[in-house]
Amino acid sequence: MTESGKPILYSYFRSSCSWRVRIALALKGIDYETVPINLIKDGGQQFSKDFQALNPMKQVPTLKIDGITIHQSLAIIEYLEEMRPTPRLLPQDPKKRASVRMISDLIAGGIQPLQNLSVLKQVGEEMQLTWAQNAITCGFNALEQILQSTAGIYCVGDEVTMADLCLVPQVANAERFKVDLTPYPTISSINKRLLVLEAFQVSHPCRQPDTPTELRA
Amino acid sequence: MTESGKPILYSYFRSSCSWRVRIALALKGIDYETVPINLIKDGGQQFSKDFQALNPMKQVPTLKIDGITIHQSLAIIEYLEEMRPTPRLLPQDPKKRASVRMISDLIAGGIQPLQNLSVLKQVGEEMQLTWAQNAITCGFNALEQILQSTAGIYCVGDEVTMADLCLVPQVANAERFKVDLTPYPTISSINKRLLVLEAFQVSHPCRQPDTPTELRA
Predict the structure, then answer these.
(1) Is any Cβ of chain A less than 8 angstroms from the Cβ of B68?
(2) What is the 3-state secondary structure (H, E, C) of chain A?
(3) How far is B33 from chain A (nearest CA, A)?
(4) What does the pLDDT look like over A26-54, one tens digit per residue?
């Protein structure tokens, strides 16, 4: 935390995992300070000695809050949910909570890790786009089907949940990797409804302290 | 659920994600039936029409319980924790809960997805071993450091938690991929202490209904 007691979010404007946490912080009205970690510049600032000491996985987001340091976006969101429960991001019904966590894990464990920067580096420049598109398509094929039985206005019912915090940044990645979204009408319409909400707008990659001028909106 | 009301676990003996759930079921004393899904045989039984209808991600584990179907191992474990809270797999202290979820997500989102069967198939036979070793080594380097500040007898303090349910199956994968565990004394000693517990033994890949005879112990 800062001297004034504000939480500190180590974040990269384009990181979809950071965006998930930024939405949670915005929805819950938690004031925080951003420390940008540029994953590209200087060979990747996440590899600096200082940052590695903070997060040995060399990844964003990392949140300093209440005297502790938490890594992993879903672990951060679950902590915020327990300590700052309003508005809630997990439904009251345990069966619906299971759906929310299932969708969140599908994205956070089944799609995003396969198309993140460090994996794409290993895959090599020539194969990157195909690899990323494949990972997203496989995941979205499943997700579209699952959402047909869980969704209301949003991913699970009619309240914004942790699943929605995972969906929107993943759709942004899909667009960045030029995935055809036509086969995913449910995903697309939920995404559209979420993007107009204030918390999704202020946390958007095009409106962060570290967003390069040419990408600002 | 079966007609008798028992939960059904769709599982593969060697799947590390299935093993996580088997440990949870064993610890909580939940009687269940196993439906084996062989990820190799018949070109992969997870690709059958019937199984895809059940789990569009074409992955194990999947649990049918209380009239619902849950995919994703951590979502399943969180549901079990809410509905069958004894013995607890998440500490009472929210800060320790955050550590448990952070370690669980590090393994379930940061290591396992990069070395699972479908990714290794894409990487190609020649590169598989190096790729898997690299994913596990990167993750374990971070995990070893994190555990030094969270561990007691087990991953977080002295009680078995969800983090331990992720650790043991991941160490088994590391051994299968011939990762040198010498640089990870904390991981290794926690793993050793957990492996002797009954719930970890009955759920072990070498003791499942679908374990091939030559691998049984």
Answers:
(1) yes
(2) CCCCCCCEEEECCCCHHHHHHHHHHHHCCCCCEEEECCCCHHHCHHHCHHHHHHCCCCCCCEEEECCEEEECHHHHHHHHHHHCCCCCCCCCCHHHHHHHHHHHHHHHHHCHHHHCHHHHHHHCCCCHHHHHHHHHHHHHHHHHHHHHHHECCCCCECCCCHHHHHHHHHHHHHHHCCCCCCCCHHHHHHHHHHHCCHHHHHCCHHHCCCCCHHHCC
(3) 21
(4) 999 999 999 999 998 888 999 999 999 99
A74 in reach of chain B (CB within 8 A): yes
Calculate the dihedral angle through the C-alpha atoms of B84, B147, B127, A14, rounding to the nearest 10 degrees.
80
User: Rounded to an integer, what distance in angstroms lies between the CA atom of residue B147 and that of residue B151?
Assistant: 5
B33 pLDDT higher than 90 = yes
CA distance A107 to chain B (A): 10
Instruction: Extract the tokens encoding A107.
Output: 């994205």
Confidence (pLDDT) at A207 = 97
Sign (positive/negative) of CA torsion A136, A139, A145, A149? Answer: negative
In the structure, what pLDDT confidence band is assigned to residue B2 with cuts at 50, 70 and 90? low
Domains in chain A, CATH or no CATH each: 8-87 (3.40.30.10), 94-200 (1.20.1050.10)
pLDDT of residue A146: 97
| pLDDT over 90 percentage in chain A | 94
How far is the alpha carbon of A198 from chain B, nearest alpha carbon, in Å?
Answer: 27
Residue B129 backbone phi and psi in degrees, to 5: -65, -45
Query: Among partner residues A57, A76, A131, which is closest to B110 by beta-carbon distance?
Result: A57
The ipTM, to two decimals, is: 0.96
Q: d(Cα B11, Cα B111) in Å, to the nearest integer?
A: 20
Between chain A and chain B, the number of residue pairs with CB atoms below 8 A apart is 115
A184 touches chain B (CB under 8 A): no
Task: List pLDDT tens digits, range A185-207.
Answer: 999 999 999 999 999 999 999 99
A56 touching B (Cβ < 8 Å): yes
For residues A54, A112, A167 and B60, what is the CA-based torsion angle, rounded to 10 degrees? -110
Query: Which residues of chain B have a CB within 8 Å of the CB of A73?
Result: 105
Q: Do B74 and A146 touch (CB under 8 A)?
A: no
Cβ contacts of B94 on chain A, cutoff 8 Å: 79, 82-83
